[in-house]
Structures are given as C-alpha cells and as structure tokens.
Amino acid sequence: ERLDYEISVIDKMGYIDYFLIVADFINYAKSQKIPVGPGRGSGAGSIAAYLIGITDIDPLKFDLIFERFLNPERVSMPDFDVDFCYERRQEVIDYVSNKYGKDHVAQIITFGTMAARAAIRDVARVLDIPYQKADMIAKLVPHSLKITIDQALEGSQELRKLYDEDIETKRVIDISKKIEGLARQASTHACGVVITKEPVVNYVPLYENEGQISTQYTMTTLEELGLLKMDFLGLRTLTVIDDTKKLVKKIRNIDVDFGAFDDPDTYRMLTQGKTLGVFQMESPGFRKMMMKMEPDSIEDIIVMISLYRPGPMDQIPRYIRNKNNKDHIEYTHESLKEILKPTYGCMVYQEQVMQIFRKLAGYSLGRADIVRRAMGKKKIDVMNKEREVFIEGAYKNGIDKDSANKIFDEMAEFAKYAFNKSHAACYAVVAYRTAYLKAYYPSEFMAATLNSFLGNLDKIPQYIDECRALGIEII
Description:
Elements: H1 2-12, H2 16-31, H3 47-51, H4 59-62, E1 81-85, H5 89-100, E2 105-113, H6 116-126, H7 131-139, H8 149-155, H9 157-165, H10 167-179, E3 183-195, E4 206-209, E5 212-215, H11 219-224, E6 228-235, H12 236-252, H13 264-271, H14 284-293, H15 298-307, H16 316-324, H17 337-340, H18 350-361, H19 365-376, H20 380-396, H21 401-414, H22 421-440, H23 442-452, H24 460-469
Parallel strand pairs: 1-6
Antiparallel strand pairs: 2-3, 3-6, 4-5
Helix pairs in contact: 2-5, 6-7, 6-10, 8-9, 9-10, 12-22, 12-23, 13-22, 15-22, 18-19, 20-21, 22-23, 23-24
C-alpha cells in the first residue's frame, strides 16, 4: 500500500527518471565493487528507493517517513546524496559522463567569498601596506564562523581602538567592508554534478578550468532552473570498512557478516567508551555520553547521533534517565506514548513532530512537514494560524485544549533543532559497522584506519596510542 502510494507521488511529480538514474549509477558502483553508503539524508524514508537499491535502510523497520523526502503538498526537488569510497568516487562520475555523454554532464561551480580577514588582507595588499601591519589588523578579527567586519568592530575593543585612532587602519577597514562577501575565486563544488537531457550548454553557460568543465551557475541557481543535480560524496569511512573486510579475508579467510545490529560485544565496547575510529563517535564528549547511556540497540545509536549537537544536547540527560527508569517516563498526554515510546518520552526526530500532527490533529504527513519547516524557521504567522488548527483537530480527537496547546509549544521549541531520523539511521548503520569491525577485528580495522590517514599526519599519533592500548604491535 505504501509502495503504491510512493510510486504514484513519484510519477505525479515527474521524478521517475531521477530515481532510475540514481539507481543505475549506484548499481554500477556495486557491480565494480566500489563501496557505497547505506544512504544519506531523507531519501532513506522511501520504500521505492530501498527496493531498487538506492538505500540499504528498510524504512518500515526504522519508522521512517516518505513525506520527509518527497512532499506531494510542497513542490521541491528530491535530493539523494550518495556516499562512495573516497578513493574511487571519480570512477562513478566518469561512468555517468560516458553513459549520458560528456556534454550532458558537468560539475558545479562554487565561489569562495571575501571573509572578514581575507578582505582586510587583500585590501591592505593593494594599498601597499606592510605585511606585518596588515597581518596584525586581520588577526584582531575574532575567530568566529561567518563573522563580519562590523561584528568584529563591536566584539574586539583592540580593533575598535585601532580603527578610531589610526587613519591607515580606518581606510583599510572601510574599503574592506565594501568588498566583504564578494566572490573572490571560482572553484569546483566538492560533490555536485548536474545531468541534463540536452547538452548542458543549452541550459547554462559553462566554465573551464584546467580541462575540467563546470557550470557557471551555482547549485542554488541550477535548482531554481529545475536542472537535475546529483551529489557524489566521498566518505573515507566506507574505504576503511572495505579495506578492513579485505584484510580480514586475506589474513583470516573470513567473510565479514555484520548481522542484524544486535551484537552484544559491539555494544559492550561502545559502553566502555572505546570508540576511537568509530564513525561519528570519536570525540571525548561522545565517548563519555556512550558510557553513561550504555547503548544496547541500533535505536540508541540513532538517538545519540541525533542528540549530540548544540541545542538537543540538553535532552541527553533526560533520555539517559528515562532509559534507565522506564517507569518514571511522563507524557504531556497519553496519546503521545505510541510516538515517543521508542525514545523514552523525548522528542528527538523531525519525523516524530510530523507523526504527532497526524495522529493528534488529523494532518496529512505532507502538511505536517510544511508546518514543521515553518516551526524550524520561526515563521510566526504560519505557526499562529496552525496552532488554532492543531488545537481544534486535537480537541475533536478527545485531547483537551490545554494539553494540545502545551504539546504545540513543545513541538515549536523542539523543531528549531530536531534531527532527520532517516539521515541519523543511515549514519548509525555506518557507525555500527565500524564498531563491529573494531570489536572483532581490531588489528585489521586499526591498520585500515591508519592507512586512510597517511595524508593527515596530525591524526596518526592518537591512533597509534589506541593500537598500543588494544595490544596491537606497531612496526
């Protein structure tokens, strides 16, 4: 029933070709033994994608929602981001170019822009200001992501003082403010590729750099034009998993079988905090969290990947407390129990917000996703209108208005940082596989991991220390 519904939506929205093209190049990669990820992003919520091999995650098993990926009530481009072995990703792009024609396939341009420090340095260079002084001015801009020059002048007293007292510095900064944010240089997007029915040049101007052809328009503009954009991502971890399996086969003559995500030794290792090298779980904070939580299922891993971010981290102590004391879990209303029981009474996923709208107030999942997005973007006018609709719908389903109002407030607060369960489930599978390999084949796994970091010598010492801690000899 769900599959029939999905196919009708995919057909109606005109995306059958898109699904088939993605399935084709993924199947090609697998036929060439190029490691492919189990999925990424909301696409894992599609049964159709699962059945034709685009994803490896059964959406029914993990309670994933198709409308989070493709919403029949909101016209938007679907987006399958696909992870490949980072060493062999180019082979898949070459296959697509050869199949559809090199003039029908192009990579996508991206522009490096003038950030605050770069703008100051470039202006100072043009004005023939000595490097030492230019460097000193630039370094007074605080190290913060996307900080502007105006914000730097407010946040740094030393920069403000220099700006007010030194005419040369004032001139540099005033000119820098005018060019800040402008494009500085063109480069190729790390993973974006566009495929077109007619030659690409019939749709957009092209750019050539060292023999590589890319569009002159950025990804956002291409999407607005309705062109088909694919993301071919390189993921180092897939290479590590594949190399480990090859080593295990070569040394022990064992074909690795990851099983059904229920191996007790793997979860025991995670509980002990031995997660260096385990995908998404390497940071000291994540290790401590796993030790407190004592994970025993793939759902626990999905939850932790979703919660271990600024904002939702505040929910972690409550989740751990409820997991260990299930009798003390409280729900704002009993109707939430079925939806929030898998996460011990905590809202964790965007999909749960959508399910609450549907179950409590009779929304379609498509409309529920639209409201969830409005909550995430704090669209007050939409939220005020939908609050009345939600409370009215919930009241018709036997939920008192005070409880309905409180639930709406909880969703509105949570939606600011809710995570996409489809994406978390895909990455939890990759995390589990790396943990399983480390638990059972530590020598082969650490050798493959070390090999993957030969181009990044800064990371190697901690992995060598980990090998020694595991009793692995380093030669």
